[in-house]
């Protein structure tokens, strides 16, 4: 049943990886689809705003939230053994990294390149998470979505998910009154390592001896060494996306700089946003406790008690600087949450 209101406003500091100290009217943890539906129905009947979070790993609360924050803890996994494939049906409240570790333990391979990515399964689909040569879309079979108007579950085939770089149909068309219940993942039993340049540092003479466990271990070492641990330093991973530009823009940049470029399937070119920030030389700007991470320049960090305003002001300085120097728009990767819900980036960053 829906919980009664408390007289205090509970803090969200431990429920968002940026560790922003804001409050909500109420926080409710849900462990079943039915309890989620009951909670949403009550919010709608009382005209109370609500948002649904997993680990809070890709958001920035801009201020205190005037509604109910629903924390998804709907967990479970079913593994089906086929002749040539493993089929995984995973409920959206499962932590992504826990699933990676569990499949390895079961000798089911194919997720190891996505080790140590924070967040839950539902967020993996929304963001189309990716790292070291693999994206969620490459292993996704379907996404089960609950419509929060009809309360019916619809299965969205991978080809209809409109996956692209850190984006999907769930971030746009289905970002309101929709909730991801589960995802389907398909992993081949004929395992082939996905070799990413960083992995070749230690294994360029031993590729034939690579195992999923070695790749998992190496990626965990790389991420632990280079990326800030949200449990120790508040952050939401990459604050900005790596820009994707036209070949003409890339050629112009390459005539001036030795710029890392990555051709995309659609003929466009992805360039390193971290390189742009490094090249600009922002001189380790700090605004209060908001700062640029020393190793990964796309990551903004909360060193201790940064406010949302401090992080936003730092982000605007970076965004405007890159626009002035390179004429490239840095698009934020994080979602912004205002007093009643999501705030479009255009309200913060000017093109």
UniProtKB/TrEMBL annotation:
GO molecular function list: FAD binding; UDP-N-acetylmuramate dehydrogenase activity
Name of the top EC class for this enzyme: oxidoreductase
Requisite cofactors: FAD
SUPFAM superfamilies for the chain: FAD-binding/transporter-associated domain-like, Uridine diphospho-N-Acetylenolpyruvylglucosamine reductase, MurB, C-terminal domain
Pfam families xref list: FAD_binding_4, MurB_C
Cellular compartments annotated: Cytoplasm
HAMAP family in alphabetical order: MurB
Family that this chain belongs to: Belongs to the MurB family.
Chain's role: Cell wall formation.
Protein name, as recorded: UDP-N-acetylenolpyruvoylglucosamine reductase
Natural source organism: Buchnera aphidicola (Hyadaphis tataricae)
Species lineage: Bacteria, Pseudomonadati, Pseudomonadota, Gammaproteobacteria, Enterobacterales
